[in-house]
Amino acid sequence: RGAGTAVLNLIAELAADQRRERLIYGGPYPTEQLFSTLLDSFRHDDGVPDPLAAFAAGTLGWRPAPFEPLVEGDGLTVQLRDGVEAVAWRGRVYRRDSVQGHGRRGPHRVRDAGGAVRCSLWALGSALEDHLELTADGRLVAVLPVRSDEATPRPLPRAVARGVVAVVAATSAAALGPALRETGAALTLEWAALGGELVTLDGDRGRVAMQLRRALVARIAAAPGHPERLGLAFAALGDVAVALGDTLQLRAQARLAAVTPERQAAALTSPPPADPGDARRIADAVEALLEDVS
User: Fold this and answer.
1) End-of-domain residue from the set 25, 50, 66
2) pLDDT in tens, 155-201
3) How far is CA 162 from CA 80, 166, 283, in A?
4) Is 63's pLDDT higher than 80?
5) What DSSP string describes 26-48?
6) Residues 75, 54: one domain?
7) Distance, CA of 152 to CA of 191 (rounded, Å)
8) Which of 123, 166, 265, 269 is 20 to 30 A from 228, comparing alpha carbons?
9) Same domain, yes or no, for 251 and 200?
10) Considering its fold, how many domains does the chain have in total?
11) pTM given for the model
């Protein structure tokens, strides 16, 4: 994604230099991921009721709005556009929670803290740990110390992995649904010490940060009732699904690309209906996760 962002930003710079005021993407696979990446370097038409649907239909206009890259020490690159908008560091990309009114969920967040900017590991609507502190104009102030974690890995219930796949399938393009369920069928999850990541995925083995488990245990212990505890478990399940979503979607896209052109066209033009079993899988996952941390 980093190389793609740089290429799109270069295109935005060239378009701005040439005074191109409106561009339309007419290429293949107008996915939600590409839409999100374009937001880094362009602004889409105002007043569109459903910009993502218009993008998928090839009718959404984009005006150039490139960011200014700032390279700091320790392999740090900052994207400046109306302040610090994104930060790339050690293979991670930290982002603001919204761009042009579009919410962005993800495990690495750029946030304001007093007069400074912090880059944090993020879940359950709050910072699990802070990694970097920057000035408001993107200069590195400090790499922040984080807790050393030597926790022994422990497996999560299989129902949680099935629920994560169901969440990703339910929130992805309908054409990817069957391929997502197929590629995610063997997914397993375990709690582990991850050193700054919320999740990692190696083959079918997913690992979820112990920091999230500790935060979830504390929040559930303080929750006033069962509905609130279920809500916290659902939020944690969603955070894990978001963190794994891009990788699972890419695997599903690769599987879809491997079938015949006729089957690809059928999947894109007449996608299958949503799987009614996904809701049950998600509910079972929430209950299993709540039991695991209670």
Assistant:
1) 66
2) 999 999 999 999 999 988 888 899 999 999 999 999 999 989 999 99
3) 39, 6, 10
4) yes
5) -SS---HHHHHHHTTTEEEPTT-
6) no
7) 8
8) 166
9) yes
10) 3
11) 0.87
